[in-house]
Amino acid sequence: MNAAAAACAACLMIASAVTTDAPRDAVSSLAPRGTLRAAINLGNPVLAQRDAAGGALGGASVELARELGRRLGVPVELVPYDAAGKVFDALQADAWDVAFLAIDPTRAAGIAFTRPYVLIEGTYLVPDASPLRAIADVDRDGVRVAVGRGSAYDLFLTRALRRAALVRAGTSAAALDLFLADRLEVAAGVRQPLEAFARAHAGLRVLDGRFMAIEQAMGTPRGRDAGARYLDAFVADAIASGLVARALAASGQRDVTVAPARGGGGAP
């Protein structure tokens, strides 16, 4: 069984007891089977975490999924994945109804994204002794950059880098292990996990600045127009009401930037 299939087999069922006044077309669009299947990307520990003791899922993504299910009046099924690329791949198998991913033009071909609800930085990790001091220094011949396959920064750097070479691992966590094991020059990722990794491993530093601003959003498969419109309005309300900020704080993610509520998402 592959990792994505194993993740789906380990889905967690969470019942929602509250029925609300969500439009029927939004409910049938987002939960056509009567259950809202929410893909949870554990590859981004800023937004989703698994409890080490009991294995329960938590974090901002989980809280948003639960609240969405409450407003729709349907139970929520959390479908965990260990990498964003695997969430996107599972789109073709109709394995989820909503997902929590970074907005990217490659993904947008199949996913209708909301406005972003969180803004995080994509940056680089290097050894202390590295001559690379700034973001712009990385794109040069002979530099190998470890990335999680299919992550937002993998997709972005695939388009942006001209001289440095990407070295892909199955997940973002595996990319950091690969960076150490193969003594690669650079690892790319989300700032907070990179900083945590540097604190746990002597002799590493995170570069100042960023190579990209990662806009984290919710999304639903394209073609679910009523659901996409409702989902974007839900995200706007979750930002304005403070739900996003509270969910981040409750999971210990206090240094994360909540996106402004203004603007529209990728809904038709």
Features:
alpha/beta; D-Maltodextrin-Binding Protein, domain 2; 2 domains; elongated
List the helices and strands and how they pair.
Blueprint: H1 3-9, E1 12-14, H2 24-30, E2 36-41, E3 49-50, E4 57-58, H3 60-72, E5 76-81, H4 84-90, E6 98-102, H5 105-108, E7 111-113, E8 118-127, E9 144-148, H6 152-160, E10 165-169, H7 172-181, E11 186-190, H8 191-200, E12 204-206, E13 212-221, H9 225-240, H10 243-250, E14 257-258
Parallel strand pairs: 2-5, 2-6, 9-10, 9-11
Antiparallel strand pairs: 1-5, 3-4, 6-13, 7-13, 8-11, 8-12, 8-13, 8-14
Q: Can you identify the CATH superfamily of the largest domain?
A: Periplasmic binding protein-like II
In which range does the helix fraction lie? 25-40%
What is the typical, i.e. mean, pLDDT? 91
State the major sheet: 12 strands, mixed
Structural class: alpha/beta
Number of strands: 14
> Termini distance?
36 Å
Model regions low in confidence, pLDDT < 50 over at least 5 residues? 1-19
CATH architecture of the largest domain: 3-Layer(aba) Sandwich
